[in-house]
Amino acid sequence: MPELIVSLDIAERKEAEEVVEKLGSSVMFYKVGIIPFTAFGPKIIRWLTLLGKRVFLDLKFFDIPNTVENAVKSACDMGVELLTVHILGGSNMLKTAIKARNTGNTDTKIIGVTILTSFSDNDIKEIGLYMDINNHILKLTELGYKCGIDGIVCSVHELNLLREKFRHPFLMVCPGIRIKASGDDQKRTATVSQAVSAGADYLVVGRPIIKSEDPLLVVEQIKMEMKKNEKK
């Protein structure tokens, strides 16, 4: 069964503490993205790890190889379990990131980012990428795989296509998971059952949980749905 990661996209320390406290032992894995990291800095990671939580650092490192190398070293030193790099950074950057990880905390998994789940075909055309989304994601995933990354972030919509070519232990981390149909800024969303049935390794869920009046209840519903749809 895949694992649930709760996206802690919160800029207020008290609110973040309340969410983590309410969820208690029912959630052990949290995503720290640009919102909490900008608001709190590395302290948010230290706080979570001291609570015994696992951390997915989603800062999408995308820079010259030397800069990414040092960022990856710092992230590994903090003990994060997963971290993201943008595959558009190219093979030199990706190989340097992997080398940096291998000289430090080799337990940290490097996860590649291809196309954000907020993008549609029209959005990628607007920035000058005229290959359709699926082919673009496939090409970037192939590059990351050849360079030795441990997995990718992808929407459930591409998951079946990617699993045909990239088998386990190559990891598939799926954001944009919703309890029901959503009209928010995520365009390539999917339900929990769709993600589990398609073979996701990690389901990243943010707003449906942290914006809920009863986040613990939502987590329990998600876990029940995950168990019900687990592949035999």
From TrEMBL:
Give a yes or no for keyword Aminoacyl-tRNA synthetase in this entry.
no
Spell out the reaction equation it catalyses: orotidine 5'-phosphate + H(+) = UMP + CO2
Q: Which GO terms describe its biological process?
A: 'de novo' pyrimidine nucleobase biosynthetic process; 'de novo' UMP biosynthetic process
Q: Which PROSITE patterns match?
A: OMPDECASE
Coiled-coil ranges per UniProt: none
- Keyword Lyase on this protein? yes
Active-site residue numbers:
D58, K60, D63
The Orotidine 5'-phosphate decarboxylase domain, residue ranges: 3-222
Family label: Belongs to the OMP decarboxylase family. Type 1 subfamily.
* UniProt-annotated binding residues for substrate: 9, 31, 58-67, 117, 178, 186, 206-207
Q: Which InterPro entries match?
A: Aldolase_TIM, OMPdecase, OMPdecase_AS, OMPdecase_bac, OMPdeCOase_dom, RibuloseP-bd_barrel
Tell me the HAMAP family matching this sequence: OMPdecase_type1_B
Q: What is this protein called?
A: Orotidine 5'-phosphate decarboxylase
According to its UniProt entry, what is the function of this protein? Catalyzes the decarboxylation of orotidine 5'-monophosphate (OMP) to uridine 5'-monophosphate (UMP).
* One Pfam short name: OMPdecase
Question: What EC number(s) has UniProt assigned to this enzyme?
Answer: 4.1.1.23
